[in-house]
Design goal:
The chain is α/β, with parallel strands linked by helices and 296 residues long. It contains nine helices and eight strands. It has two domains: 32 residues; 197 residues, TIM Barrel. The radius of gyration is 22 Å and the shape is globular. The structure holds zinc ion (ZN). The site of zinc ion has 7 residues, from loops.
């Protein structure tokens, strides 16, 4: 009898240890991908591939009695549908628009510096934010919206969404919509997949939420540590009417975003000199100048 009970107790503790390990590993794989030092940005070759094991819910063993649930946090606000954009090309007649976009923030350093430059030059831009970062820096996310910029969903944990199950995918989208709403009071209409890695399932999920997926037309490759001169040349050579310029407000290689901060006033002045006006991605869509291959 005693031996049997001991065996059962042993089996139970083995299962519990296994569960704890599975949950811990799940947490780690997210942490490794988004550890706040943020190697990120489209095209990073060594980004760890996303795995299903990093969703702790899916590792639970069904036949084990669950421990008591921790205290329930206050309910989230219900996410209202984003306002659809009504095209109004007339409003932007004779204007040559371009949109500046900043991915991967908010953070405690660069996003604020970028906001100050945008305010100084009276430019409105679009920030594609990572849910985990909004959770860490809700005040900066709020500031983005309060200062008249547009805010977009850039996933919860910056994983390659094209490799996720539809359940994990919805989780990445919805959790981020929720944290943006909680921090800023707005429902984001725009979404940009990390690394630009989309799939049909992703586009379906985005469209189901009445959102639009946004690529870019000019990649500054700021995350790779490109020099200011290199990026300046690239932007001037590749910007056209209705263009969307990709930059970052967090992450990338060491000091990479210092170059972005230096580049920003230079391209604002130069593009203005060439007759461009700065718009948010939403305004670009409203104007009809956004390319249909870029905004889906
Ligand atoms: Zn990104």
């Amino acid at each position: 009898m005693r031996g049997k009970r001991t065996n059962r107790t042993y089996a139970l503790s083995r299962t519990l240890v296994f569960m704890a390990l599975a949950v811990w590993l799940g947490g780690c794989s997210i942490a490794q991908q988004w550890d706040g030092n943020g190697l990120s940005g489209p095209g990073i070759a060594d980004a760890a591939p996303a795995t299903e094991t990093s969703v702790p819910n899916e590792t639970a063993t069904p036949d084990v009695v669950k421990p008591e649930q921790p205290a329930v946090k206050p309910p989230d606000k219900e996410i209202p549908a984003p306002f659809p954009i009504v095209p109004n090309p007339e409003k932007y007649k004779n204007k040559k628009l371009v949109a500046l976009t900043f991915d991967d923030g908010p953070d405690g350093k660069y996003t604020q510096q970028i906001l100050e430059i945008l305010e100084e030059y009276n430019v409105k831009a679009t920030f594609f934010v990572v849910g985990l970062q909004v959770e860490k820096y809700p005040e900066i996310a709020k500031k983005i919206v309060e200062e008249g910029h547009s805010i977009g969903n850039h996933s919860w944990s910056h994983r390659d969404l094209s490799k996720l199950s539809s359940k994990a995918l919805d989780n990445e989208l919805n959790k981020t919509q929720q944290v943006i709403l909680n921090a800023t009071g707005v429902t984001s209409l725009l979404m940009r997949a990390p690394y630009g890695a989309i799939s049909n399932a992703l586009l379906n999920s985005v469209h189901q939420e009445n959102m639009k997926h946004v690529f870019w037309t000019v990649d500054t490759r700021d995350w790779a540590g490109s020099s200011v001169a290199e990026m300046h040349k690239n932007v001037l050579a590749h910007t056209h009417k209705g263009g969307i310029i990709l930059m970052h407000s967090f992450g990338g290689r060491k000091h990479a975003i210092d170059h972005t901060v230096k580049l920003l006033p230079i391209i604002i002045k130069d593009l203005r000199e060439r007759g461009y006006e700065f718009a948010t991605v939403e305004q670009l869509i409203e104007s009809g100048q956004a390319h249909s291959s870029v905004v889906k």
